[in-house]
Amino acid sequence: MKINTNDIRKMFLTFFKKKGHEIMASSSLIPENDSTLLFTNAGMNQFKDIFLGQNKNKYTRVATIQKCLRTGGKHNDLDNIGYSENHHTFFEMLGNFSFGDYFKKEAILYAWELLTSEKWFNLNQNRLWVTVYHKDQETYNIWINTIKLPKNKVVFIKDNKNSQFNSDNFWQMGDYGPCGPSTEIFYDTTNAYLNNSINYCTNTLKGQVEIWNIVFMEYNRTYDGQLIKLPIPSVDTGMGLERITRILQNKKSNYEIDIFEKIIKSIIQFNPNININEKKSIHIIADHIRSASFLISENILPSNEGRGYVLRRIIRRALRHAYTSGMNKLFFYKLVPTLIQAMEEESLLIKKREKIIQNILKQEEIQFNYTISRGIKLLKSKIQKMKGKILNGKTIFKLYDTFGFPIDLTADFCKEYNLKIDYEGFKKEMSLQKKQTRKSNMFKNNHELYIDIKHHSIFVGYNKYEIKSTIQQIFVNGISVKKLTVGESGIIILNQTPFYPESGGQIGDIGIILKDENVFEVKNTKKHGIGIGHYGILKSGEININQLITAKINIKNRILIQNNHSATHLLHSTLRNIFGENTVQKGSLVNDSYLRFDFVCYQKITIEIIQKIENIINYYILKNIPINTTIDTFNNAKQKGILALFHEKYNDIVRIVSINNYSVELCGGTHSSHTGNIGLFKIINEKSIGSGIRRIEAITGKNAVKFIQKKEIEIKNIINILNANENNVLDKIKILIEKNKILEKKIEYFTEIELINIKNQLIKKNQLINNINILIENVHNFNIKLLRTIIDKIKLNLNSSIIILTTVNKNKIYFIINISKTLNNNIQANKIAKKIIAHIGGKGGGNPSLSEGGGGEKIELLSSTLNNIKQWIIKKINQ
User: Fold this and answer.
1) What is the mean pLDDT of residues 535-545?
2) Beta bridge mates, 386
3) What one-character-per-residue DSSP string does 618-681 give?
4) Count of alpha carbons within 13 Å of 242, Cβ hemisphere only?
5) d(CA 134, CA 158)
6) Which tens digits make up the pLDDT trace of 513-527?
7) What are residue 750's DSSP bridge partners?
8) What is the Cα–Cα distance from 181 to 166, expressed in whole angstroms?
9) CATH class entry, domain 765-878
10) Rounded to whole angstroms, how far apart are CA atoms 522 and 553?
11) How far apart are CA 661 and CA 658, in angstroms?
12) What is the percent of the chain with per-residue pLDDT over 90, rounded to a whole number?
């Protein structure tokens, strides 16, 4: 029976549903509230808080098909693509999970049944091999005694590099977080099983395909490397869809399965001249079109930092390989329709955003063609200037990093000129860049994320601003304590709270927690798994756990925040109405002072459009529309087409905020009761913050009124200064600008005459010694720009010259040195600059022909310094 990828997805989910598992949807490729990860890299990412005991799941058994991306960090497959038949940047992970339910034995039995049963995948048992962490005797015994695997087919894997818990069979999602021993199942694609022999070493099996990894989550690795037992042992398994499909479809490579078969066929159709034996490049293009399309579908855009940088790198890597394979026409974006067809049901989000994905890929492709042509010009220029026979590593890396120029293409160009490339120098530059990237793009988690929350906090602050509550826990510097004393800063966990925790762009509430005369000032509120943390300082008295207290938010501050939040919803809907549904949110900030909204937009926003946005929003404010909130299931909300943000993680039960039918969104934040409470909406700033991303900053209510009044006062002051009125102020300004232009031209004219006079006067002071012109003079009260201009004019009149000009401006000395290149063997400008700086101070530098500097303050030594320099020069040219 021929089985396709979609069949395998359904079989996997059906199997585990029959085993009592709840089927849950894939989470976003962008991890929610987890700064330790750049992208979702495993099926367990969305359950991290559950494994850590910081949150609870209503299901103890779950199965998912998770979209994953591995391009950096601990799990990085990017460099393997094209060289491995088993790896991908984007892939789908089939996973089943147990949260304190079944453990090792049941997890192994389920995996074995699915893989080997005639009802399911029906794999040949003789082709299956297993690895086990070398200290996990219990798992080993299950494979030998329960599954009845021969002992020679169960391989113990030791720790790597003599470091404990650094093993292929001790799994962890990153440098920190949940982890535990694992057992991996391998499929033998060779015929080694026929004679019951296999090549293996202490750490990995050779020539076998790993198809399933079963992880027993028992520990949390902390920042200092300690392993702490998790509250409940859990199971996390992962089976790569592409790998198991390869096995079930009896293919030699992942890139031969049905999904890639269609994509690769399309790649070849777009370039009939491509060498079909050049599998490396074809595989990279096929892999990267999936990664790029899925990332863009989740609102990641190409940029020069963070996730956008990874996306751009993926796109350009594919285009580089296309270029070197002979593809010289735009084609990459044309693969998107084929990808949608190949991925079937899993491509719904891509299909919804098909046009915008194609537009972004097309623009990147056009830009790549431009940068690579610039790279060729730079390479030819460097080759022409070369004195040796080896192109240095810095140039090769600049071509690679700045222009996306592949090193093999650089090598090909150099061959035409009988040149070699400094490959070791290139690797050194690459290594330095990687270190810098790691420093600048570190996704580190705050230690506070791992405070040991044992109590659930209930938020009741939508309608209640002051309540009685009980202190459940107190933390100081991440450590649980029993009390806070005056002056101490800490985090307080309450059983219920009116304080809204920072989320969805809305800042956390501020206020006070008090017990009689004991007052804790809350400066911020954040969510911590199942708990809500109140950050602040104890202003007076003492506060203890289990105390009954009063929690009271700052109402004025909350009202300002929720007015801005409701205005943000109106802004989002207005932008979508003006620019279309592809105008998706990229980020937001809502606080008590203003709102900030980032969104995808590929056109410039004019003042007319800004005023149109303001007019529409203020229209809905004036109508004083009730802002309603309702509760529904997430699935119902999706079916109704209610707007949701892809990067947010929603519970099964969601909150819907509606402003008539004009704005309907899923939102957990706080809002005004009516649009009229917002008062007034005014945009104060609009700009581009990246390729295809624009930012609007706006204010509301009293802040908006104050802003307009301030502008009104500024206009009145301008009118008064110009001795104008409201009707002729623009004409007055235009007249003033024209007069200013005329005066500037006159200044330029007279400045030019003055410079010519100064030049002529200086040339008269020139000394001719041994046919060399020497001019060393101080010019009064010039700036460095005028010094450059005057020295350029003097050079035209003096051949074979040494010119040193200095000036004193605002008690600082500035200098320029110009020496004819024919004299550089004997006298160099940069050496003279060092001598001047050594005497008068300041900084400077340059080359043998031209140097400049400034900042020296030893004005009293200037005359003698110039005289000494002159005598030194005369002595050098007389030698």
Assistant:
1) 95
2) none
3) HHHHHTT-BEEEEEEEHHHHHHTT-B--TTS---SEEEEEEETTTEEEE--S---SBGGGG--E
4) 24
5) 5
6) 999 999 999 999 999
7) none
8) 10
9) alpha beta
10) 8
11) 7
12) 51
Where are the domains positioned within the chain?
5-250, 258-440, 451-553, 558-710, 765-878
Q: Kindly report the pTM of this predicted structure.
A: 0.62
What pLDDT score was predicted for residue 200?
A: 45
Q: 451-553: which CATH architecture?
A: Beta Barrel (2.40)
Under CATH, what is the fold of the domain 5-250?
A: BirA Bifunctional Protein; domain 2 (3.30.930)
The 8-class DSSP code of residue 453 comes to: -
What three-state secondary structure class fits 90?
strand
The tokens describing 272, both together, are 């009939």
Q: For residue 389, with 0-12 CB atoms within 10 Å meaning exposed, 13-18 middle and 19 or more buried, which class applies?
A: exposed
Q: What tens digit of pLDDT does each residue of 11-30 get?
A: 999 999 999 999 988 888 88
Q: How far lies 598's CA from each of 469, 483, 586, in Å?
A: 37, 42, 5
The answer to whether 246 and 257 are in contact (CB under 8 A) is yes
What single-letter amino acid sits at 504?
G
Tokens linked to 396? 């090769």
CA-to-CA distance for 366 and 145, rounded, in angstroms? Answer: 61
DSSP labels, 498-539: SPPPBBTTBPPP-EEEEETTEEEEEEEEEEETTEEEEEEEEE
Is 558-710 CATH 3.30.980.10? yes
Q: Does residue 391 contact residue 382 with C-beta atoms inside 8 Å? A: yes
CATH topology match: 5-250 vs 558-710:
no
| Amino acid residing at 289 | I
Structural element, H or E, at residue 480: strand 479-481
Task: Please name the helix (run of DSSP H) or strand (run of DSSP E) that holds residue 841, with its range, or none.
Answer: none
Q: Which residues pair with 188 in a beta bridge?
A: 208
DSSP characters over 420-448: EE-HHHHHHHHHHHHHHHHHHT--PPPGG
Three-class DSSP labels, 318-336: HHHHHHHCCCCCCCHHHHH
Collapse the DSSP code of 74 into the 3-class scheme (helix H, G, I; strand E, B; otherwise coil) and give the result: coil
Ranked by mean pLDDT, which of 191-200, 227-236, 620-629 comes out on top?
620-629
State pLDDT tens for residues 832-867.
Answer: 999 999 999 999 888 999 999 999 999 999 999 999
Structure confidence by residue, pLDDT tens digits, 758-804: 889 999 999 999 899 999 999 988 888 888 889 989 988 898 999 99
